[in-house]
Design goal:
With 309 residues, the protein is α+β, with helices and mostly antiparallel strands. It is built from three helices and 14 strands. Strands 3, 6, 7, 8, 9, 10, 11, 12, 13 and 14 form a ten-stranded antiparallel β-sheet that branches. Strands 1-2 form a two-stranded antiparallel sheet. A two-stranded antiparallel sheet has the order 4-5.
Length: 309
Amino acid sequence: MKITLLKKSKAHGIRKFNFTEFQAVFILMTILTLPVLTGWVGYKMAQSSEQPTVASVAIATMHRQIDAEKIRAVETKKQAQLQLNALTVKIGMLQAELTRINAFGQRVATLAKVNKDEFDFSESPGIGGPSEVIVGAIQPSSTDLFQGLDDFAAELNDRAYQLEILEAVLQNKEIKAEKRISGRPIKKGWTSSFYGTRADPFHGKPTWHGGMDFAGKEGADVITTGAGVVTWSAKRSNYGQFIEISHGEGMTTRYAHNSELLVSVGDVVRKGQVIAKMGSEGRSTGPHVHYELLKNGKTMNPERFVNRR
């Protein structure tokens, strides 16, 4: 079977094209498959051109990440260096403070007349820290700083221990000074009777007077002549309102004829503390304080303690 195609042409008029059946089918199949083939070839070419583009993007992304990590590492190092420098400055400040403590401790020990060989507050050399990072300078390592902190902590512990001992020594000195009996049992007034034999104020006969009398105004302050513990604070026969204080080492003081008692048994009192108000209770002719001083239960003449400095 033959297929004839007619084509009109101005130059040649109508022209004929004769095809066999096979040729017609081939031409038709070629026409139909050509777009599909063209599309497939284009897709493959697009695929082959896309692969290097994706790889390039991935590599570029990795480069950007690496650059960002480099920047972060530099910034981290910078911050670490700043912290290290700040720590160095802080250590320097603490060392300066320790030097001040050493000087103060040595001064206190000198004023307290403490043996300087016993308390050696030797001054540590002053050190300082950098205020800014110097390019190219050798910076202290963390190991050096931690070792410096350990040494500094040990030195602080030593100074704290010495100050505790010094405080105990000073307190002991203060307690001894407080316990030292001296002065009069009044702030204002005068001596109205001394220790020893005297004419009794009621019947005029010679009698023994085991203390000293200090006269003054009713209600005037009665004070301790030394630190101690109150062992009596109540009425007692001829003494009237009566206070007794133990000062240790067998020493006792007594304060009689008070109008008011301001301390109780068991109270710890300091030297010069107001413990009562002057009165005339008990066997008395007027407002005064009958003051006694005893050593191991035996009365002593208070006069030398009254005039003690």
